[in-house]
Each structure stands twice: as structure tokens, then as C-alpha cells.
């Protein structure tokens, strides 16, 4: 199958930091279909060879195990091309179409690795140039808008040019192997499904923690914040996969139908429940990994006195028969104690303890990063001492050890799926809009009241009030248990 893959924003951070290394790994693994061309478009005026040198220099910044040898890069670079484009000029799109039509590839993937405000103008120009035929797919990066109204407008323009089956809204968390294993855990094994409900589960915690700060992206991040950057997309997508009903098939729409039902079942927020169940914070100076780091307000390009949140913790419920009364806790933040993304399923205590020694509730930990695996925490007899003396033990499955061959990364998997036309790991427009609809009362409440922003020391697990949020129900975050 021949393909052309076009990156709008071809010299931007996302393209050279994430997308090109992912494509190279697909090429190295022999997964990239033969007969492909990769075209980067941007406003700079440069030749194909100059662009190849640019990418070669950027590859020096990726982790050493993923860097190409000179011979590997030479073969990969033969696929790379560059074209200067002004995204507001119709004649430049006509030139792009002419370049694509010289070969007439079976599949054309147009990846919009640009700021979201450019999505409508790019899609309108693509439609006007006739670059929306049945062989064309458009990939849209997050964040897709900054609120429900802007998301709807982007989707309106996209749908006026492309069919829903041509639109690939990317959420790179869905490409992580551990998230795909979450689907396998639930729907390919009979072990957990009878327990996956309110009668057996006490609470569910989703943590997406980063130890890094905003770096040089302070101006972008300050307009976004943790709620838009992580909760509206990544955290809610993980919640839907945990809480969804079994789909009838593995078809993309069957899966996305069930995810949408979860989003529609989330307990809606009111101004009162926002004040009670949602916490926001901003990091101040502290120490991460033994290194002193500045507070958010001292970061590059952050406006003085900014009230942008770098931490969010919230409590919600899925209001249906399976999950009624089970609290779901979501938290995310920058400059936290560790880089740690995980889902913790805390099971209920045994109904009648018969052992005199303390018994801890069972829990299942789904590790997303930096490790990728599963932990099942149980109680067991020690084998020495009194026969009724129990101790906690854990069964630990490390997917990297279980599958020793090099595993496919998130962007690598999603790029290959976009080329192949597989929509399972991409977000449908109604899902994405419903997620915005759910978080909008939080945004509205914060816009009306600038108070309530707590600070936390860099290198901690966030404001102390985040612990109180969970403790109110008699529970604790995983690191506090």
C-alpha cells in the first residue's frame, strides 16, 4: 500500500520531538508500509536536504537507544521531503495537491501538528483544494479547542470537509501498550469481569503525575492549564475505558459508543459541587530529584500573578447500575514527586474478617508510565510463625519482561493506525464534545471566582487538600496507603 503522510507544522516541536522519532521506530521495526513518502510543510524556505539535516540534528536529542545509525538514517531520510507553505494561501494548497497527485498514493494522511486555532482554516483550504477525497485522512492533535463552543466550531468545520470516518482525533494515551492491555484485561479474560462493579470495588483512582515543569512553554501552558491539558482528554479517556460496558464487537464505533455512554453518565457539576469536589493548585519553588526548581510564576514566559492551575484533583461518580456510589478520583499535576501514571482499582474489604492480624483490602494497579505493567496486591500467610499471621504480597507483571521484543510506542502505534485507517484508538467528535460539556461547569466556576487556587511545593504530591478530598470518603491516595 502506497501512502503519503503530510505534517502541517513540519518544523514544530511536536513533529521533530515525537512524530519523526516515532516514524523512524516504525521504519526500524519494519512496520512502516513500503512505498511511502513523508512530507513536512512549514513557512520556512528550505530544501529537502536541508530538512533532512534538520531532523538528523534533532534526533541527537532523543534517548540513545532510539537514535539511528548513519546508515539507518540515510535510508529513512530518503522518505523525507519538505515543502514551503503559507497556511492561509489557497495557491499553496493547490501546489500541495499537485505534489500529491504526481504519484496518486493509495492513502493520504494529513497530520495537523499545529495550534488548534489553525485547524478550521487548514481544513477549509484543504476542502477548497479538493484534498478531501475518500483516500484522505486528517489527524487532529489535542487540545481540540479550549471550551465546548470552540470544540464544536472546529468539529463543524472538519465535518463540512471530511466524513467522521476520515477524522482521526488523536489522544496519545490511547496508544500506550498498557492502555491497550486494559482492554485485554477486561474483555479477553473472565477473571476480573465478575468483580468489575460496585459490589466489589470501593473506589478507583487515576493519577497522571509529571515531575517536570512547564519549561519554555509557559505562554502556551498558561492559556491551557491542567484541566484542559490533561483531565478533559487523557484522564477522561482512561476513565471511560475503566468504566465502559463490554462492547458488542471490537469495531471502533462499538467501542466509542460505550465510552460515550460513560461520559454521559458522569455526575454533572454544579457551582456547589465544584467548590466541594474539585481542587486546583499551582506549584511553587521546591526540589525535584534533589535539584532545586523554580515556582510556576518564575518560569519562562509565565505572566506575573498568573492564576493558571498546574494541579487538579477531583471526585466524581458514574451514575449507572454498575458503578452507582463508587467514587472515581482523578488527579494530575506538574512538578510532582515523581513521573507516575497509573490506575488503582481498590477493592472492598472482606465482609467478615476471620484473621486477627490486620488485613489490607486488595487492589489492582495498572501502571502506564514510566513502567508498563500490572500489580495485584493480596494478603497471604507468611509460612513462618502463627498460622493466622498474614502479610501483604503482590503479583507483579512487567510487560517489558513478559514481551522482551521492543514494544511499539504510543505515537508509533497511532501513526500506523492512521495510515491503516483503524479508528479504534481515536476519539469520535461526540465523545470529545461530551467531555468538554462535563468540564465546562468547572471552567465557568473558576472564571467567576479567582480564589481557591492553592499552592504546593515542587516535589510534593500536590496541595494537602488533595489528601483531604479522598479522606472525606474514608480512603487515601495510593502512596499514602
From TrEMBL:
Segments forming domain Glucose-6-phosphate dehydrogenase C-terminal: 183-477
Recorded catalytic activity of this chain's protein: D-glucose 6-phosphate + NADP(+) = 6-phospho-D-glucono-1,5-lactone + NADPH + H(+)
GO biological process, one term: pentose-phosphate shunt, oxidative branch
Cellular component aspect of the GO annotation: cytosol
Alphabetically ordered keywords of this record: Carbohydrate metabolism, Glucose metabolism, NADP, Oxidoreductase
Residues the entry annotates as binding NADP(+): 43, 86-87, 142
Molecular-function GO term, any one: NADP binding
Taxonomic superkingdom: Bacteria
Limits of the Glucose-6-phosphate dehydrogenase NAD-binding domain: 6-181
Residue stretches in coiled coil: none
Class in the EC hierarchy, top level: oxidoreductase
HAMAP family for the chain: G6PD
Protein name as catalogued: Glucose-6-phosphate 1-dehydrogenase
Amino acid at each position: 500500500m502506497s501512502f503519503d503522510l503530510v505534517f502541517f507544522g513540519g518544523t514544530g516541536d511536536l513533529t521533530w520531538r515525537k512524530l519523526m522519532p516515532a516514524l523512524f521506530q516504525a521504519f526500524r521495526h519494519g512496520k512502516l508500509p513500503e512505498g511511502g513518502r513523508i512530507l513536512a510543510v512549514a513557512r520556512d524556505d528550505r530544501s529537502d536536504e536541508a530538512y533532512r539535516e534538520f531532523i538528523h540534528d534533532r534526533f541527537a536529542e532523543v534517548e540513545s537507544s532510539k537514535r539511528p545509525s548513519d546508515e539507518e538514517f540515510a535510508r529513512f531520510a530518503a522518505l523525507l521531503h519538505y515543502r514551503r507553505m503559507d497556511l492561509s494561501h489557497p495557491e499553496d494548497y493547490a501546489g500541495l495537491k499537485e505534489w500529491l497527485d504526481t504519484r496518486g498514493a493509495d492513502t493520504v494522511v494529513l497530520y495537523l501538528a499545529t495550534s488548534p486555532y489553525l485547524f478550521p482554516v487548514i481544513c477549509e483550504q484543504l476542502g477548497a483544494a479538493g484534498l478531501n477525497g475518500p483516500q484522505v485522512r486528517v489527524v487532529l492533535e489535542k487540545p481540540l479547542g479550549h471550551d465546548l463552543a470552540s470544540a464544536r466550531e472546529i468539529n463543524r468545520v472538519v465535518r463540512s470537509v471530511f466524513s467522521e470516518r476520515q477524522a482521526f482525533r488523536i489522544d496519545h494515551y490511547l496508544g500506550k501498550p498498557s492502555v491497550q492491555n486494559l482492554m485485554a484485561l477486561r474483555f479477553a479474560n473472565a477473571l476480573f469481569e465478575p468483580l468489575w462493579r460496585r459490589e466489589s470495588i470501593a473506589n478507583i483512582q487515576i493519577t497522571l503525575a509529571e515531575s517536570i515543569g512547564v519549561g519554555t512553554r509557559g505562554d502556551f501552558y498558561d492559556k491551557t492549564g491542567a484541566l484542559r491539558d490533561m483531565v478533559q482528554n487523557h484522564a477522561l479517556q482512561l476513565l471511560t475505558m475503566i468504566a465502559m460496558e463490554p462492547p458488542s464487537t471490537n469495531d471502533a464505533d462499538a467501542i466509542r459508543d460505550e465510552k460515550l455512554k460513560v461520559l454521559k453518565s458522569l455526575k454533572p457539576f454544579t457551582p456547589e459541587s465544584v467548590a466541594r469536589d474539585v481542587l486546583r493548585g499551582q506549584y511553587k519553588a521546591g526540589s525535584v530529584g534533589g535539584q532545586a526548581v523554580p515556582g510556576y510564576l518564575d518560569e519562562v514566559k509565565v505572566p506575573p500573578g498568573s492564576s493558571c492551575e498546574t494541579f487538579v484533583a477531583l471526585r466524581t461518580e458514574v451514575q449507572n447500575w454498575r458503578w452507582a456510589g463508587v467514587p472515581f478520583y482523578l488527579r494530575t499535576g506538574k512538578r510532582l514527586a515523581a513521573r507516575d501514571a497509573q490506575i488503582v482499582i481498590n477493592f472492598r474489604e472482606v465482609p467478615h474478617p476471620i484473621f486477627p492480624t490486620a488485613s489490607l483490602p486488595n487492589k489492582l494497579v495498572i501502571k502506564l508510565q514510566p513502567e508498563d505493567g500490572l500489580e495485584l496486591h493480596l494478603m497471604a500467610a507468611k509460612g513462618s510463625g502463627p498460622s493466622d499471621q498474614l502479610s501483604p504480597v503482590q503479583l507483579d507483571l512487567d510487560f517489558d519482561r513478559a514481551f522482551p521484543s521492543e514494544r511499539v510506542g504510543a505515537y508509533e502505534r497511532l501513526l500506523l493506525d492512521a495510515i491503516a485507517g483503524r479508528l479504534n484508538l481515536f476519539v469520535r467528535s461526540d465523545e470529545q464534545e461530551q467531555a468538554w460539556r462535563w468540564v465546562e461547569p468547572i471552567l465557568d466556576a473558576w472564571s467567576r471566582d479567582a480564589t481557591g487556587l492553592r499552592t504546593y511545593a515542587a516535589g510534593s504530591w500536590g496541595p494537602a487538600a488533595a489528601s483531604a478530598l479522598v479522606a472525606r470518603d474514608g480512603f487515601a491516595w495510593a502512596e499514602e496507603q
